């Protein structure tokens, strides 16, 4: 599994564990919902800055999100 797919899988699983819709999560991360959707589908290659913004509302570090 490449790193984009690992991020996609982890992000979707963790978001669902919190009970958040993509829109709720996107609002928390300060990112547009369609961008979150693209990341979860592995269609985007986000910058490390975006990975940090995704990790923050989940209460984890970027490295944990990518593990």
Automatic annotation (TrEMBL):
For the keyword Transmembrane, the answer is: no
Q: Which Pfam families match?
A: HTH_3
Can you say what this protein is called?
Helix-turn-helix transcriptional regulator
Enumerate the InterPro entries for this protein.
Cro/C1-type_HTH (IPR001387), Lambda_DNA-bd_dom_sf (IPR010982), TransReg_Diox_bact_type (IPR050807)
Q: Which domain of life is it from?
A: Bacteria
User: Could you tell me the keywords of this UniProt record?
Assistant: DNA-binding, Transcription, Transcription regulation
Q: List the CDD domains hit by this protein, alphabetically.
A: HTH_XRE
**Transmembrane regions listed in the UniProt entry:** none
Q: Identify the residues that the record assigns to the HTH cro/C1-type domain, covering every copy.
A: 11-65
Please give the GO cellular component terms listed in this UniProt entry. Answer: cytosol
Record GO terms (molecular function): DNA binding; DNA-binding transcription factor activity
């Amino acid at each position: 599994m490449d790193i984009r797919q690992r991020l996609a899988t982890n992000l979707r699983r963790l978001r669902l564990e919190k009970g958040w819709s993509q829109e709720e999560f996107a609002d928390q991360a300060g990112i547009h919902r369609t961008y979150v959707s693209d990341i979860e589908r592995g269609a985007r290659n986000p910058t490390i800055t975006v990975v940090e913004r995704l990790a923050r509302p989940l209460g984890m570090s970027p490295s944990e999100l990518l593990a």
